[in-house]
Amino acid sequence: MTSSHLAAYQPDQRAASLIGGEATDANLRRYLHGIPGIDAVGLEARAADFGTRSIKTSSKRWAIDTIIGLIDLTTLEGADTPGKVRSLVAKARVPDPGDPGCPRVAAVCVYGDLVGTAVTALGSAHAVDGTDGVRVAAVATAFPSGRASLAVKLADVGDAVAAGADEIDMVIDRGAFLAGRYGQVYDEIVAVKEACRRADGSFAHLKVILETGELNTYDNVRRASWLAILAGGDFIKTSTGKVAPAATLPVTLSMLEVVRDWHRLTGVRIGVKPAGGIRTSKDAIKYLVTVAETVGEEWLTPHLFRFGASSLLNDVLLQRQKMTTGHYSGPDYVTID
Amino acid sequence: MNRLAIPKTYKLYIGGKFPRSESGRVYEVLSHKGAFLANAAKGSRKDARDAVVAARSALGGWAGATAFNRGQVLYRIAELLEGRRVQFIDEITSCEGVTAAVASAQVDEAIDRWVWYAGWADKYVQVAGNANPVSGPFFNLSVPEPTGVVAIIAPQGGESLIGLVSAIAPALVAGNTVVVVANENAPLSAISLSEVLATSDVPGGVVNIVTGSPAEIAPWLASHADVNALDLVGAGNLDWVELQISAADTLKRVLPPESGADAAAPELSRILAFTELKTVWHTKAIL
Amino acid sequence: MKFLDYAPAPESQALLNLKSDYGLFINGDFTAGRGTPFQTINPATEQQIAMIATANEADVDAAVSAARHAYDGVWSRLSGSDRGKYLFRIARLVQERARELAVAETLDNGKPIKETRDVDIPLVAAWFFYYAGWADKLDHAGAGPNPASLGVAAQVIPWNFPLMMLAWKIAPALAAGNTVVLKPAETTSLTALLFAEILQQADLPAGVVNIITGDGSTGQALVDHPGVNKVAFTGSTAVGRSIARSIAGTEKKLSLELGGKGANIVFDDAPIDQAVEGIVRGIFFNQGHVCCAGSRLLVQESIHDDVIDRLKQRMQTLRLGDPLDKNTDIGAINSAEQLARIRELSDLGQQEGAERWSADCVIPENGFWFAPTIFTNVSTSHRIARDEIFGPVLSVLTFRTPAEAIAKANNTPYGLSAGIWSDKGSRILAVADKLRAGVIWANTFNQFDPSSPFGGYKESGYGREGGRQGLAAYLKPAVRSGSRSIVAAPATTPETKKSASAKKAAK
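^ Those are the sequences you sent over. The predicted structure of the assembly is below.
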């Protein structure tokens, strides 16, 4: 399948040589189905092992602050208003009013039509051109279902980029993937990446949401991860948060293994974002351990790892307060967004 | 006028063939009255060694046959035994000095035991094996498998045919191959049995019968590193403790000698004694 | 690397209540041993934990007598359901004191608290729970209706899973109606002695379980004692052989669980990341002190380099250090002797021409430690492919076809365990059929469960522990009238022994 968008942006040349030619359904299938499979029992056991690491004292302090700095603070509701977004942004800038030393989150994540509001509300705290600050990520491509024409999905992306989004969280077409139309999934990602191009030639950072809960099997998640990376995604992301199960540790582990293998193969580092279902700092710490022991702690940076979460932040703040004061905190001491 | 009979030469049964002892030796088999019956081959340690080689070669095929197939083969042996009743009865009456009626009852019992064992071939796994309900996402199954090459000292007392059948059949049912040291004083039934085996569908080497002196041969089998199990059911009058000690070097599975009314009475446990339990865990997952 | 240097997370020893010296547990009470006491040390620090008693022959005799009296007078008269109730109590007490037992086990053995807490102690409780339920259902054990117990069981266990091996021995024996004299390993007696306290708390009738500590001679005296009916031994093949010799001619039933050189077979279609995990679990779990360890990796030649690269990368995240730290993966080697043996065989591996690689580990100053190590370019003729090292050392061999994998895997006098890694179900099942090993793991490794029978083929021993078959090992069929009996051993005079060897010589 060709489109005018393909001509503009070319995915990694290695992708073409790896696939062995054009990104057709057949070539992609041969490649993706040739990747070693996953034994679910073993994968889940390994993920559970990471959960037995005991992260205490100084390690815990570091982990807590790191987690905060990796959060994409999110609101993706039909009922979102500019007021709601402004409130979210305020929290993103100052997570703990009682402690100015508390780090800021990595980004806010909103629907495309509220990007402008978010950018304005961030003001000087907005990270621009890789500087320190809070980024604005927009979901696009008919999030969460992805069920719309390509033209509509691309327009969705274009609007968000034009409004100032630093990052685009797209969804893949799960129907196409499950029907075996890998070529279509690939082409759409390529097209979306092109739509992320700004007038000045820079690109908005592209996160590709696989919606692992709908892909169902670990082998599918693995194949979709490779596909998203081959097509040019900068990040692979587990979920929209609108479907259960959302992010799980085994699924994230399988995606980290793909990222590790891609790095071995090409030297390129791709990011991973588990989203949805991570509510406690205990859980989030397990993810940090999983990242560090699978791909290395170089990945524990906003450029390469994010938590897509809303309620996680407050639980982490409660833990942070306990570490600072020595006593248990309570909901009255953290703000709602 | 009496017709001049043609006396039979009694040889060993190894690898499906009937060789003489490589030592060239024979020994006299006498009737219960002391009259000369025949010269039986006096097996040597090299014959025993060759028997073990034959048994090992035949193991893959016999153990690998389906249970149903083994059962059928064993049943056919019973058919052939039935067909040769007269031969067996004759040999028993001359060797043991019992009446034809008694000998006939022995042959009946031996055949019936053989049939009983044949029927177990495709069933003992269901009784001795089982799934295990492990607490984890695994399919877990325990299955008895043949031990391998079993050396047997056959019962040395009276009722030699019953003793021999009772000793051999259970090991065969489970897919093992055997090297049997026959009843020293009454080896004729053993050799006639080997004729039955040779004309049945039992592959050569599955059963090997060495006639001669158990006292001489047994130690070589007990110490042989390619023998997996040692059945001393008929070794009561030998220095069997020494044999057991010798077998310990290679950690053979050893059954001690038995005596009493029915030394090797038919029992499922006799089949299971020559099996190894294998337990396999398989991961089980939808995703 | 900041985050990966996890801050210390030590498990507290505060819940321990250890004595400075321990006696023998005979007839329900602790009593001084008549042999020379010896110290038990923490192999991670070489510090003494306590003094342990040595049972001499008189003590062994006293223990066997106590077991016999308890058998005749009490235990064999109890109903199965009452025996079961005692076992349920023991299981519950183990669960209640689980944390304490885990810490004590880690202290005495050197293995990580993560393992004692998550694997060893839960399996101990599980084993007692499982067999508790069998005690009143012996008709279904496979030994015929109304089977009989054997009497007094002599049990000798090794140091690698001290309390777990104790559970594997005592639980089925008691469920089946036997009484027990158990000898723990010399370097790891502590949890057995704490277990004795649990037996007191469970109010188990005196003499039903007796625990006598000591060295190899204590074990020998126990096994040789004429008053025992059953011998169960887990340990080295060499000792197993000598026990098999000692019981020859007696009516003692014997089960042996000995050494191994397990083959972990990785096919080219294996789920690679899980296979690497399985390799690690197979040989580095419990520092490789596992009879069923996957100590030989048989990897399909076409994927050898990729697998080894991944394995090395994975090994670099193994954490070696204080066993009481919850983040430790690799603990201490159990003793100086064992460490010397591991070093000796590893040096031999280098001399034989294999290529040695070890994970970068900071080795603590005190204690016995060995960094996880792999040898590549190992051939079937190398001793490190045949001899059991019993340490965190993997020998890597290759194969080309499934048939070659099977042949190499089976080419050993051992036959305890094997692993198969493949995505192809039909191949897993067919290869499992052909492997001569008592326990086979497909796409997993080192899994244990009280309902799953465990034991070896060939020189890995005979008999099974766990499951219905593990129970049947402590039973015999009900006595039938007019049936056969085992022939009594002839009196072995020097004459007889001489004539036997003379016969051999004559041929």
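The interface with chain A takes residues 1-9, 114, 118, 269-274, 277-278, 317, 326-327, 423, 443-444 of chain C (CB under 8 Å). The longest strand of chain C covers residues 393-399.

Shout if you want it in another format.
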